[in-house]
Amino acid sequence: MSIKLCVLASGSSGNSIFIGTESTRILIDAGLSAKKVTERLAEIGENPENLDAICVTHEHSDHIAGIRVLQRKHGIPVYANGGTLDGIRAAHKGTHELICCQFTTGSSFEIGDLCLEPFSIPHDAYEPVGFVVRNGVGSIGVATDIGIATNLLRQKLRACDVVVIEANHEESMVHEAPRPWSLKQRILSNQGHLSNRASAELIAQIAGERLKHLFLAHLSSDCNSPSLARRVFETVLAEAGHDHVTVCLTGAHQISELLELKDD
């Protein structure tokens, strides 16, 4: 028995995460074109024909861009809560034709041999969620668009073996960036995105012996850098005595490493 994770893409241009077992395969979000999702899946030996579900965190385009075409071509069910479905329908005409399975935030549901627990996160969307995805081997926490670290978020991630966490920006780079002030305010607000430091401190607070792997997600292309994000996390985790945690990078234009947890 095992559980696999690969971040197919992460960033403002598109987000999608593959999680699979021997018998069940899902995506968390499909914010790339269907063509790109198919290409990224092929890099890890997977095919959209074998996907059991696309589970959506929220309705922003960088998380849903490919869902309609993927469903039309491959018949993949889309799982989302009521608020996210409302947001999708408000933003995209014709989305009422999607085959949707509605879940309730805070209530676990099963897809094959995976148990998914959606939990509320603070972000400027209709009803945004993170997920804890688990089977008998391990638990994977996914939280990639977060304005502020909440107690609920800490509680959910504390029980995970692997965490995919937002490390969006370096605050000083946001202030210096040639962006409208309104956009800077949105990014830095409690409904926006987590900075490297805030995210690293969150992980340092919840990390224990169980957490082994950390994937840094949703890195800004102009207000962050992979090397900077990794350095901040490794420094903060080492200072907190958690240098056993492996820090992995994700990106917009290439897949992450493929991680597999196996039953000992």
Automatic annotation (TrEMBL):
Gene3D superfamilies: Ribonuclease Z/Hydroxyacylglutathione hydrolase-like. PANTHER family: EXODEOXYRIBONUCLEASE WALJ (PTHR47619:SF1), METALLO-HYDROLASE YYCJ-RELATED (PTHR47619). SMART domains: Lactamase_B. This is MBL fold metallo-hydrolase. SUPFAM superfamilies: Metallo-hydrolase/oxidoreductase (SSF56281). Keywords: Hydrolase. Transmembrane segments: none annotated. It comes from the Bacteria.
